UniProtKB/TrEMBL annotation, chain A:
Protein name: YvlB/LiaX N-terminal domain-containing protein
Domain (YvlB/LiaX N-terminal) ranges: 3-32
InterPro entries to which the protein is assigned, alphabetical: YvlB/LiaX_N
Top-level taxonomic group: Bacteria
Organism, as annotated: Asanoa hainanensis
UniProtKB/TrEMBL annotation, chain B:
Protein name: Uncharacterized protein
Keywords: Membrane, Transmembrane, Transmembrane helix
Transmembrane segments: 20-48
Keyword Transmembrane helix recorded: yes
Source organism, top-level taxon: Bacteria
Species whose genome carries this gene: Asanoa hainanensis
């Protein structure tokens, strides 16, 4: 076990960081380490498995944090299930969206398009940086 | 398929609460409720003219894909972590 990893586990044992924070630190440590010997061909990038949403904000003077990890497989399964929604329900939802000021036609959204969107999600990183909040959406 | 759901609740006062919920035994205990829910879903599928088998397969796919989901919310000294393994 290397020294940095041991330090992280010590912090976790002392209760100074949570298990999730320790996991993130170890993951960051692993990302920072060289994965191949010098001169060797770079390995192909591993396919992303999870969509991660991280929000750090200050609310009412207190630190707030949201960290959600969703398997991409779950999004794919959800898209397949959403394809079963009857067209009349989609039309009704579209009408309600329009009434709420969201001009979005759900009936025009095809399951294949959503699947394609999920396939390419691993190339997307969204970062919003505000003085009192930071949002990061990415795949890992 | 998910095997274990871990729930951890931290509050400003008191010790953190940790729960390990094994999915399969709980599903077996709740089997009568699940059968009832499946029956209702079946009726809904027939009423809305949705292919019952496709709907069941889709539901099972969503359930199976839940493994690896993790939700961690913290505000001040209050925190809730739900992890599905």
């Amino acid at each position: 076990m290397n020294e940095q990893r041991k330090d992280i586990l010590d912090l976790l044992a002392e209760g100074k960081i949570t298990a999730v924070e320790a996991e993130q630190l170890i993951a960051a440590l692993e990302r920072g380490q060289p994965t191949a010997a010098p001169g060797a061909e770079p390995r192909p990038k591993a396919k992303a498995k999870y969509l991660r949403v991280q929000v750090d904000a200050v609310e009412g003077g207190e630190q707030a944090r949201v960290n959600v990890r969703v398997p991409l497989q779950l999004l794919r399964a959800g898209v397949k299930l959403a394809a079963l929604i009857p067209p009349q329900a989609l039309s009704q939802a579209t009408v309600e969206l329009n009434k709420s000021g969201v001009p979005f036609d759900l009936t025009q959204l095809k399951p294949e398009q959503l699947e394609e969107l999920i396939e390419h999600l691993d190339e997307v990183t969204v970062e919003v940086d505000q003085p009192d909040a930071k949002v990061r959406v990415f795949c890992e | 398929m998910p095997q274990l759901v871990t729930v951890r609740v931290e509050r400003p006062a008191g010790r953190p609460v940790r729960l390990w919920v094994p999915v399969l035994p709980i599903a077996l205990v709740l089997l009568p409720v699940l059968v009832l829910a499946a029956g209702l879903a079946l009726v809904a599928a027939v009423v809305y003219r949705v292919n019952v088998l496709t709907a069941l397969a889709g539901g099972w796919r969503v359930f199976s894909a839940l493994r690896g989901t993790q939700i961690d919310v913290a505000h001040g000294r209050t925190a809730v972590l739900v992890a599905i393994r």
